[in-house]
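Title: Comparing notes on inverse folding

I've been comparing how different people in this forum approach sequence design from structure. To keep things fair, I'm posting one structure and asking everyone to reply with a full sequence. Here's the target:
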């Protein structure tokens, strides 16, 4: 289990114990609290059935075969199947983006079919968007991971040298189809690496939202721009994510963006950097309701449920966490458990703790407050 997760679970026990006893008893170890845990008694799958190989259930066989056939067609040199695949999404811009993402991954394996598609002139916006996304992807591969100070100068130079070409190609793609937000999302993605100023970035973002106000992929990329490791701050990132929760339409997994913002905060500051106060705590049930209303086939939902279970537990909402663990089932191959040396053990202990703290009636027995309501993060000045 990661140090962050260990600290979070221990802190959770200490806080709830103090709340119920009124004293300063530091609380028992996680093992003591969860000793004798019986998953079946709480509607959970047996520990022996936990699977760290996946975040959620496998793709339906028919769907998998359809995608395999599409990839095979592309890699064999054809592009018409790819064109039809994108066109079938119509004006569902989130679905179109998902399909362009798949084709970008295929093009990363071999892109001769993409070149042929571009040269044909058919569906010029879609073909150019895939190429622009591929260029952005390769720029990030050249950069590698890590904060700027950790990236070798030559890698950073290669990264910044490649992004303008992707940006310009996306700009031309946008001109070929003024309805599609996809090219603008590519520009938003490239913007943070190109160090575009906030004024220019806001102009790009306005172009995205004018076409698709609740574009999930676009919001994720924009949130990255606003986070502290790029061109914003913890407060700006969190504000952006909270707004997404409040404005998302029914059936959209967009409120899950808040969970991704919490992940950013936790990675920078640990659990003490997470927001406090009822206003932020109450966002988690709202996110849960949004995930419940999202299409079952949405591949983002299982990943988000893992984060929701984790942060619900840290925010003293074990009943909410327990419900997510029930919905997740046996799958534990996702963050935060996948960051632990033993993901199965980390996942099993977290759901055991949620079950024990929720109590026999499935509630945590608290009033849901922590004595504050200012909505600040520990890393954010008043």
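Reply #1:
Here's my take.
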């Amino acid at each position: 289990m990661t140090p962050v997760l260990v600290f979070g679970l221990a802190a959770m026990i200490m806080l709830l114990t103090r709340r119920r006893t009124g004293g300063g008893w530091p609380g028992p170890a996680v093992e003591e609290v969860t000793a004798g845990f019986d998953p079946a008694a709480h509607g959970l799958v047996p520990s022996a059935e936990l699977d760290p190989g996946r975040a959620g259930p496998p793709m339906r066989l028919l769907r998998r075969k359809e995608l395999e056939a599409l990839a095979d067609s592309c890699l064999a040199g054809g592009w018409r199947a790819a064109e039809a695949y994108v066109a079938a999404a119509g004006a569902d811009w989130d679905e179109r983006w998902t399909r362009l993402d798949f084709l970008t991954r295929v093009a990363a394996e071999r892109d001769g079919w993409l070149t042929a598609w571009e040269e044909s002139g058919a569906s010029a916006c879609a073909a150019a968007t895939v190429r622009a996304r591929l260029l952005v992807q390769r720029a990030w591969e050249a950069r590698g991971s890590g904060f700027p100070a950790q990236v070798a100068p030559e890698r950073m130079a290669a990264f910044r040298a490649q992004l303008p070409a992707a940006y310009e190609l996306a700009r031309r793609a946008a001109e070929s189809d003024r309805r599609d937000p996809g090219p603008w999302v590519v520009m938003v993605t490239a913007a943070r690496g190109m160090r575009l100023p906030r004024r220019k970035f806001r102009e790009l973002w306005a172009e995205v939202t004018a076409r698709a106000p609740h574009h999930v992929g676009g919001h994720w990329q924009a949130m990255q721009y606003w986070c502290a490791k790029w061109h914003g701050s913890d407060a700006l990132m969190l504000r952006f994510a909270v707004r997404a929760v409040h404005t998302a339409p029914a059936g959209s997994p967009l409120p899950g963006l808040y969970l991704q913002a919490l992940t950013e905060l936790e990675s920078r500051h640990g659990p003490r950097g997470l927001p406090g106060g009822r206003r932020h705590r109450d966002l988690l049930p709202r996110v849960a309701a949004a995930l419940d209303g999202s299409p079952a086939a949405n591949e983002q939902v299982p990943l988000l449920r893992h984060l929701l279970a984790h942060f619900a537990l840290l925010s003293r909402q074990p009943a909410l966490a327990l419900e997510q663990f029930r919905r997740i089932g046996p799958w534990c191959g996702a963050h935060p458990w996948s960051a632990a040396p033993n993901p199965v053990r980390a996942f099993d202990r977290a759901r055991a703790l949620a079950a024990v703290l929720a109590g026999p009636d499935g509630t945590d027995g608290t009033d849901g407050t922590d004595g504050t309501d200012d909505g600040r993060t520990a890393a954010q000045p008043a």
